[in-house]
Amino acid sequence: MNRTSFELLILGSSSASPTSSRSSSAQLLNIAERFFLIDCGEATQIQLRKFKAKFQSIDHIFISHLHGDHFFGLPGLLSSMHLLGRKQTLTIYGPENLKSIIEAINKVSETRLNFSINWVFTKNQGLNLLFEDKKIEVYSFPLKHRIFCTGFLFKEKPLPRKIDKYLLKKLNISVADILLLKNGLNVTNQEGQTIQNKEVTIDPDIERSYAYCSDTIFNPKLKDYISNVDLLYHESTFLEEHADRAKKTYHSTAKQAAEMAKKTNAKQLLLGHFSARYSDLDLFLNEAEPIFKNCILAIDGKKIKI
Ligand SMILES: [Zn+2]
Ligand SMILES: [Zn+2]
For a tag on the chain, would you pick the N or C end, based on fewer CB atoms within 10 A? Predict the structure, then answer.
């Protein structure tokens, strides 16, 4: 059986200034047909159109911090959602000041959105549960940047055990007991025999996870929040030759991102938020791969299956 979708689309991979081939930070994560927009740099709505993502199916937007390259696309996206007749509530997770910015824009432009916004404010401490449903949990965690900034952790909840339907019938197990089996319990069949869970079920797929670490200085404390993820996005604004600049501006180098992937025992590392000064992105891989083998580059339009 095919697993449910868990796929990331890169919408923007540039740092402060966009380039002709790299837009500002934004990603679209699809987990089981729930669409999460992560950061919303300038031109995000154009990128969504360009890469054929349906933006009215986005019900949750996560903003890491209030530097323009992470949210300047939000007023435009909200306006287009409104003009295209959106009615369903949109939840925006981010710093508290974001609400006043959006409200001020709507006030001066005398815009009354057709849909309501549910605001969830991120906090400066620990792992905070922002969203959950029966399949997914999303947390924020603090990053170390020049201004208040959080990362986001997306996790599938543990999946139920898989049942062998043929055996279920053969052993005369009632349909009502399926839930017990899925939860790992033994059951009694219609002849009164105890059926061991192991006889009719197999282990479920291991739950998948994605951690998004936008702007941050190298911070070993991240290990407390995001160990063992399947995919770690860690900013790598600079190469080591500009390590001083990285430190001064609270950003990281590709080498530091690789060290973080190693420290947190990630399975794969996604590098992004590249400074506009670099045109050859392979230099980032060359720097990261000797430390952490499984690295990929965020390229606008790239889809990554987790
Ligand atoms: Zn940034
Ligand atoms: Zn920033």
Answer: N
